[in-house]
């Protein structure tokens, strides 16, 4: 079973530039996740699938001690540059056990990564292990309804798909809202909040008012705040 879904080489370069300004990333996912992240000053934070380091850099600016992991050496170079040596980055395949001690982190952030992972059961077990009791896990994914609008087919069918992103192709697992949330619950986490964020007004005021109005009427991202229960 193939499992390397990291964005290497030219795909990594493309993704770093594309995600910096794409409405889904820059004006929907990022504002919603950063609002949930909140005050992280003095906390040990794990950025899971950190990509080019947008979240890592934002959390460093808020005073967190950030460790970012990603399978792409290409994207890690962007992340290191974004953080200017103020965060720790580790190249790591998310299909493998995490290379950290038990109860090492106060927060884990996993933005638009979850559906790419094959062995999500193991990843959730590992995240529960490396998070301290009471720590939070914040996860965002492309909204299943948005995926159906994009890729067609049955909402309920699920399964791995190859999806076009410009001239490139990415692979991820389609799943319903029910499956997404229940996987996280079955992984030993408690649901605290579920959001279906809309674009922030900066998309309308700074970039494209027509695009803002169009996106406001459809779903694009699903975001959850989970918590690791105390033992």
Short characterization:
Strands 3-2-1-4-5-9-8 form a seven-stranded mixed sheet, sandwiched between helices. It has a two-stranded antiparallel ribbon with strand order 6-7.
Helix amount, in percent?
A: 25-40%
Alpha-beta classification:
alpha/beta
Strand content: 25-35%
Low-pLDDT stretches: none
| Anisotropy-based shape | globular
Number of strands: 9
Description:
With 231 residues, this protein is α/β, with parallel strands linked by helices. Helices cover 39% and strands 26% of the residues. The strands form 2 sheets. The chain has a 7-stranded mixed β-sheet with strand order 3-2-1-4-5-9-8, with helices on both faces. It has a single domain (9-227), classed as 3-Layer(aba) Sandwich (Rossmann fold), CATH 3.40.50.150. It has 9 helices and 9 strands. It starts with 8 loop residues before the first helix and ends with a strand. The chain has helices spanning 9-21, 23-37, 54-61, 73-83, 120-130, 144-151, 177-186, 202-207, 209-216; strands spanning 44-48, 65-70, 88-91, 105-111, 131-142, 159-165, 168-174, 190-195, 221-227.
SSE blueprint:
Blueprint: H1 9-21, H2 23-37, E1 44-48, H3 54-61, E2 65-70, H4 73-83, E3 88-91, E4 105-111, H5 120-130, E5 131-142, H6 144-151, E6 159-165, E7 168-174, H7 177-186, E8 190-195, H8 202-207, H9 209-216, E9 221-227
Parallel strand pairs: 1-2, 1-4, 2-3, 4-5
Antiparallel strand pairs: 5-9, 6-7, 8-9
Helix pairs in contact: 1-4
Which key phrases capture this entry?
two-stranded antiparallel ribbon; single chain; alpha/beta; Rossmann fold; seven-stranded mixed beta sheet; 39% helix; 26% strand; globular; 231 residues
